[in-house]
Amino acid sequence: MLEVLGQRRAKLLADPLKVTVDGAVTMDLQENLRGIEWQIEQCRPSPAPDDAGDVDEGLVVTWLVPRRRYR
């Protein structure tokens, strides 16, 4: 997946992102590039819990009980 997205990103960057023909048409591919870069970020692996560094997150435990006791 990352390889395909990287190829699409490279193809977009090889050509101008914005082309304007006066009075006829404007083509803007900047949002497409942002979308592909966002997808690449989503595909990258997140750090493992052991690699969290100095982040100290405690474990929270709670009991779930119904509001009314049933007979």
Largest sheet: 2 strands, antiparallel
> For the terminal residues, how far apart are their CA atoms?
55 Å
Fraction in beta strands: 5-15%
Radius of gyration: 24 Å
Mean pLDDT: 83
Question: What is the H-and-E element order?
Answer: HEEH
Report low-confidence residues grouped into runs of 5 or more: none
Number of strands: 2
Description:
The chain is of the alpha+beta class and 71 residues long. Helix content is 38%, strand content 11%. The chain is built from two helices and two strands; from the N terminus they run αββα. It has helices at 2-14, 30-43, and strands at 18-21, 25-28. The protein has a two-stranded antiparallel ribbon with strand order 1-2. Helix 1 runs antiparallel to helix 2. The chain is elongated. The model has no long low-confidence stretch (mean pLDDT 83).
In short:
With 71 residues, the chain is of the alpha+beta class. Helix content is 38%, strand content 11%.
SSE layout and pairing:
Blueprint (H helix, E strand, L loop, with lengths): L1 H13 L3 E4 L3 E4 L1 H14 L28
Antiparallel strand pairs: 1-2
Keywords:
single chain, alpha+beta, two-stranded antiparallel sheet
